[in-house]
Amino acid sequence: MKFIFADSLDFVDPSYDFVADRSSASRKPYWDDAYPHEILGYAPYDGILVSRGIVGDHRISGKYSQAQAMRFRRVGAREFLRLNSPEFAALQLFGDCGAFTYANQYEPPYTPTDTVAFYDDCGFTHGCSVDHIIFDFEESPKGLDGGTDEARRRYDLTLANARSFLEEARQSGRFTPMGVVQGWSPASMAAAARSLKDMGYSYIAVGGMVPLKSDQIKACLQEIRDAVPDLQMHILGFAKANEIGSFAPFKITSFDTTSPLIRAFKDAKQNYYLRTAPETLSYYTAIRIPQSIENVRLQRLVREGTFRSEDLTRLEREALGSLRAFDRRECKVTDVLAPVLRYNAVIATDRPYEEVADTPTMRKLEVAYRRTLEDRPWERCACPICQSAKVEVAIFRASNRNKRRGIHNLGVFKNIVDDLSAHWETAWTA
Fold this sequence. Notes:
Elements: E1 2-6, H1 36-40, E2 47-51, H2 52-55, H3 66-75, H4 77-80, E3 92-96, H5 112-122, E4 126-128, H6 149-172, E5 176-181, H7 186-199, E6 203-206, H8 214-227, E7 232-235, E8 254-257, H9 259-266, E9 272-277, E10 280-284, E11 287-288, H10 296-303, H11 309-327, H12 333-349, H13 353-356, H14 360-375, H15 384-389, E12 395-396, H16 398-429
Parallel strand pairs: 1-2, 1-8, 2-3, 3-4, 4-5, 5-6, 6-7, 7-8, 11-12
Antiparallel strand pairs: 9-10
């Protein structure tokens, strides 16, 4: 089971000054920044997936700048992602069309022909056929029963594109073609998988999983596996990465996700991963200390006259100073909790700490932060990020800290996946 990281220009400035909170004046984004495999010195994934819709072109406005998109196509994915050194040669490069980026369009903006050319030009090792996402979901229909007219139209279109895509890909022979499964029910997805097998696909990619609950995803995977037990299977946009252990029995060949990185700064509580047992993750809450002069919410409070800017800056400075002193073991947990909670009261409630100290919101924050501080998880991790950034990696504050924490999470998650894979491969071959 291979973990493929879905990249979206996720890099950090390796020379970022945490105390001054700034990059060098001479820094050139992308060129001076580091991808996860560069800042760690090893790849925290088995490969990288890049969506065509993320790269962008004249049809879809992607996340890449025009110059970056042109260079990606010119030099190829491996060089652009800086995976062209010998130690990263074995990493796989997956491409898909990024169906979410054009989900509201009547038809995909890409054709099988130009998509094969894109994968060829960029040097992908694996490429997904052109699909059109289906958001409908019904769990009980049998066969091809159920489904709205629009769901059926997208289903037929996805399969027609897959047939043309495979014909084009066979002529190029430069990457492994993957037929995308879309459907409105477990049974319709299983039917799609059978059709893809009949076309000649040996590797399928199951789409449309992001909005589904774990039990619904498992129902889909079970029916697909029953229908095509011998095909390799990839899960596109696997949003349940923290539950990966319960999905291993479905003989997943590979899956892509951004979940470990994104949870570092989008989850309310589970921001920092720590492996506490062979197949167990513990989660810690990062301590929020936003930049007072740049935070939109805090600046609104200043404009409204609720707080003075200089008072917020002082609270911010005291919270940061106490955390760094705590990291140097110059103060106790109770000494650092007080300034941290004073600043967090403003962030969480828009009110001074004295007015909200005994509210449920502040009590929950205190419990979560106390656990993070008492356990000092950054000292229990040997990864290069935690060893160099120390307590800074546990501070929820702007991209260079938050993404570093996310990259740390990727490394922890990859170790879990490797152990799960070894366990299940042994079980399957026994």
